[in-house]
Amino acid sequence: MRYIDLGASKWKSSALGFGCSAVMGRVGRKQSLRALSQAYHAGITLFDTARSYGYGESEAIVGEFLRGRRDRVILSTKFGIVPVRQPGWKRSLMPIIRTAVGFVPSIRKLIRRQVRAQLEEQQFTRDVLRRSVEESLRQLRTDYIDILFLHSPSITVLTRDDLFEELENLVATGRVRAVGISAEPELITAVLRSTPTQLTAMQFPVNLFDISLGRHIKAAQNRGLIFIANHPFGGPDRLEESRRQLGKLSCSPEVSPELRSKLRSGDDRTLAEVILNLILTDTGIQVVVPSMMKVSHLRANIHAVSNCRFKREELAWIRCNLGRPPADGVQAKSHDRLPAPL
Fold first, then answer.
1. 88 in a domain, yes or no?
2. Is residue 221 part of a domain?
3. pTM
4. Which of 51, 89, 141, 211 is the most exposed place for a label (fewest CB within 10 A)?
5. What is the span of the domain harbouring residue 16?
6. Which of residues 303 and 95 earns the better pLDDT score?
């Protein structure tokens, strides 16, 4: 595993973190605990969860997993989106729903819409913050949170003096070690352009076609901030486009034989290597946190980050040429397509 210093915190973190959004959401307790344990034993040290993940049950599973390991991991959670407590009969249906999604993936969007309706967003009052942190500490079975993120706030939330006074108090008392914001790139950009505040960690979605925050991150590097990327594979549509674009690049006459061979290798690690290392190389982003509930995905991603075959200049060339049409109208052939999504 590759390890890095996390901002000015002096914490040592794995460059690959574990995103817990699917814990008790897409998969149940047994598979969640197995995936968390496998990630830990593979060398992953940063685990990212939220009050709203897994219908409000993700933190409890992460807390169960952390027993005896808390001092060896970096733990982040979020507040601001509150899960609505569901009646027992609805919770009892979750195993059936998970099985149905496995057999009929097309219903996943419908399930996501229903889940969103069960969340209360923009909950950023001082009282909600206090209750949320208390509940997170209880569920996670810990007495401190390494990074507490504001979860998808509006820009007006950032002007709330009373909220930030409470956040400062949580840091002063040691219950929270660092405060950050988890949001879309546009809001992160606004924060980076503003006067420095106690927000010392930034989390945002990044994928193969959107690493637009790069110049803002580089301009802020002397501030010792923590930069964490999530959703690196961008969902099924982005993955399909990633495969298509990399297939085109592999057929370009501008590509060296060595790079063409790597792009055409046809195994699962190719897509992971390109995406994860484009995010982590020369961007200022320190950690990337995909959701890895399958052993095959975990292994592919760890191998991609730890044993990247692509040189820095090759990654730079891919970044510059993504989206360009192949020279002379050459089209990628079917056998040039990259593997199934991770």
1. no
2. yes
3. 0.83
4. 89
5. 3-81+121-235+284-309
6. 303
